[in-house]
Batch of 2 targets.
Target 1
Amino acid sequence: MNSLIVPGKVEHVRMVPVHHAFTYPLFFLAVDLDELPKLDREVSLFGYNRSNAICLFSKDYLPGYPGELPEKVQEVLKAQGVEEAIARVMLLTTPRSLFPVFNPVSFFMCYGPDDSLRCVLAEVKNTFRETHLYVLGDDSRENNSYKVYETCKEFHVSPFNDMKGNYRFYIDISRENIDVRVNIFRDAEAVFTTKLCGSGVALTSGNILKTLGKFPLAVHLALPRITFEAARLHYQKGLRVFSKPIAASPMTIRTSGPRFFQNYCLQRFRTFFSKITSGSLEMSFPDGSSEYFGTTNASPSARIKVKNYAFFTKAILGGDVGFGEAYVEGYWDTDDLDSLLRLIIANLDVADDQ
């Protein structure tokens, strides 16, 4: 089988505005997606969609896409207009070990019939429970043994980096040796570099035991390590913290849900709009879902697109002023502001009862 367990390490180096570097040992998997059912049957310490010493669950990847992992990847490629023939997909990822883990980045390596790397899906997660997908393909080039992809930075990950710059992905994968680097460039200069590398061995129960013996808690330490390094950067080195921007890219395939008080204010909004007697309203949320109020196709008809759940608290606490400020700050938008205002005016009697 092609699937591997890979003992290795992760390295981060920050060059500006202060120098900061660390290296941690870890292990990860390089799994041929077509082998998942066979691995589940034949490798006693590996589980697919069930808990085990190490395991993978389809629900942990590519949220919003249906099916098992191979079907999810095909759906993404189809949605993104990737026309290359894909013969197999190799997933580089940190597995669960009995319990869920925080997995900062996973790579779906898509190979053609000639076994050449045709495209890569890089699934990036942040600590706000958001997930972004970078589709890397047409603009690749060769650099020594590396396949190189470059794309604009579209997703907030570190609170010590703003949204400026480009990602440059360097990928070098042989049968056993894996070297993946993701660097941030600004004005053609590398300002932040990361490296994930290791030498793989066959994914067998014996090798799983050996690896867990060498790295007993490694997969569960990603979040504690992130927190520790963030504390060093902020409190020891005085690095500025950037506020998290609204996740506006359509490739952010999962956004963070509302917090407790935001959810309370959202329920207040639902109560209000459920009582409207004139017109119709569609309200869409950051997770892509929508709700409908009023009488279908009735006039006036309006749509609110909520981009940030903070909109609900700002509007509830600030009233008309908060509603307007939230619009200016980009927390919500509408296709037709005039229709929305006419809808609200037509239902002022409902507002007076709230």
Note: The CA atoms of residues 232 and 238 lie 9 Å apart.
Target 2
Amino acid sequence: MINRQNYEAFFLDYLEGNLSKKEASILEQFLAKNPDLKTELNEMELFILPTPDISFPNLNQLKKIDLELSDLDNLLIGQLENNLSPNEQAELNQKINQNPTITKEQKQYQLTKISPDLTITYPNKNDLKKKDKKLISIRFFIQAAAIFLLLVAVFFALKEKPTHTESPIVDTPTNTPSIKIEKNPKTIKQIETSTPKNSNKTKLIKPSTEQQV
């Protein structure tokens, strides 16, 4: 059924002549009930261009014609391309002798072959050659990167390794008094003497050879 939601599709079918008589009658009844849409249909009719009555009398000339080469054409083309066998060459010579006008066609075929002008030379031929560029393989870059990373790792490992050096022995000062020993032939007398401050060394005095009274 036609309604205000799908009327545009019916309008297009009506303008293109695709509606049956029954559908056209239903459309007219719909327009009678919706006169505002009839104006829209009339405006859409303005966009339809009339079909011009143009005819082409020689339609057969537009068709593709399959051209078949005759035996003579095949012989002439074969001679031009140096593809004739001795028997075919003898057959072509016989036809030319029987009909000298074939030489005209033979010349026309020969004009289709272009021969290069060997007098024209290019002095800089070496510039036209493709030069092979030396490409460094990706394997070389991988090896170089691996060696570089190894050297960096060794460098930081040696830098962070602690060095063992012998620290000098320093005499720590103490206030321990030293003992002075005097020795004589009869008695050994210990004499405690005071030592200077910040000295921890014990002085040993050799016994004198002289007797002390």
Note: The chain has a mean pLDDT of 75.
